[in-house]
Amino acid sequence: MRKKNSNMLISLVVPVYNESGVIQLFIDQVDLILKKIDYKYEIIFIDDGSTDNTSLELENIYKSYENIRVIKFSRNFGKEAAISAGIDYSNGDALIPIDVDMQDPPELIVDFIHQWQAGYDVVYGIREDRALDNIGKRITSRFFYSIFNKISKTKIPYNVGDYRLIDRKVINVIKMLPERNRFMKGLFSWVGFKSIGIPYKRPERSSGKTKWNYWKLWNFSIDGITGFSTAPLKIWTYIGGVISIISFFYALLLITKVTISGIEVPGYTSTLVAILFLGGLQLLVLGIYGEYLGRIYEESKSRPIYVLDSILDKNNK
Q1: Which residues pair with 244 in a beta bridge?
Q2: pLDDT class for 240, splitting at 50, 70, 90?
Q3: What is the spatial distance between Cα 201 and Cα 274, in angstroms, rounded to a whole number?
Q4: Starting from the edge strand earliest in sequence, which strands make up the sheet with 308-312, in order?
Q5: Is the pLDDT of residue 132 over 70?
Q6: CA-based angle 295:299:302, to the nearest 5?
Q7: φ and ψ of 69, to 5 deg
Q8: For the residues 126-135, what does the mean pLDDT come to?
Q9: Is the pLDDT of residue 30 over 80?
Q10: CA angle 287, 292, 297 (to 5 degrees)
Q11: ∠ CA(73), CA(77), CA(79), 5° rounding?
């Protein structure tokens, strides 16, 4: 059991990108729920380079509420960078990343805190119903989790996003991780600690459209796999070995056939197929090598994960 202390602080980290029109609704619901938990709380909005009226709305909300902080990026750096900034600038004894579109139901925060009080260091939400996603997204999501968990030593729970409660000691470990190409679901699992999941049904978005398309999800998946597994590199050793063995036995077959039957005129089709197959295989291998090499290149430049434009914080003017 974790000893309850009314002076403890809960930090909500809310990445926003072009979410004009939904922020006040989010504040109204979350504020009602957080007032029931008997803890102090702060809400940290991360404006990830919005180009609509989001920044103006956040400034107005900041003036109206005492426990609101706003961190604005100089441009769009992505959700992983926004969550990282929230981790860097949060003061809470526990931190909760949450989406502003209300698909992460705020009422689950109460359950998160109950489990945290029971002694768990990480409490994550499990989407038990993905009926709102189209069939293509459900299939590809299931496929990604399955592949990731098979080839990576770090296992991530199925149908779990970023919505979770994280204890301060876990946050402190994550802050020490130096990588810049970040896959936060993997990092949350990699650090370990005592964890538990709470199932929930994800409602529809309260406003706007998702910023994630299939291309972004594909690149996000590649970031996750290459960030937590070298299996895509290792597998080509085995594939190369199998092809070499097949080639050896095929060569023996040809030598035996020529010895018995005499010299044959080589077949054009079989030669072309072999060349195209091996050429395509080599290009695929080079592409995978390139993915890892590109990430090494990005890390070696040591650029910051994000760049701040401004911070609105009543405690640090």
Answers
A1: none
A2: confident
A3: 51
A4: 195-201, 122-129, 160-167, 94-97, 9-16, 40-47, 68-73, 308-312
A5: no
A6: 155
A7: -125, 145
A8: 68
A9: yes
A10: 115
A11: 100
Burial of 131: CB neighbours in 10 Å, binned 0-12, 13-18, 19+: exposed
Mean pLDDT of 95-114: 86
pLDDT digits (tens, 9 = 90+) for 259-274: 676 655 566 556 656 7
Residues 6+ apart with CB under 8 A from 223: 181, 182, 183
Q: How confident is the model over 154-195, as pLDDT tens digits?
A: 787 777 888 889 999 899 998 888 887 778 888 888 888 888
In the predicted model, what is the mean pLDDT of the chain? 78
3-state secondary structure the chain: CCCCCCCCEEEEEEEECCCCCCHHHHHHHHHHHHCCCCCEEEEEEEECCCCCCHHHHHHHHHHHCCCEEEEEECCCCCHHHHHHHHHHHCCCCEEEECCCCCCCCCCHHHHHHHHHHCCCCEEEEEEEECCCCCHHHHHHHHHHHHHHHHHCCCCCCCCEEEEEEEEHHHHHHHHCCCCCCCCHHHHHHHCCCCEEEEEEECCCCCCCCCCCCHHHHHHHHHHHHHHHCCHHHHHHHHHHHHHHHHHHHHHHHHHHHHHHHCCCCCCHHHHHHHHHHHHHHHHHHHHHHHHHHHHHHHHHHCCCCCCEEEEECCCCC
Rounded to two decimals, the pTM is 0.73
pLDDT at 27: 87
Pairing of strands 40-47, 9-16: parallel
Paired residues of 255 in beta bridges:
none
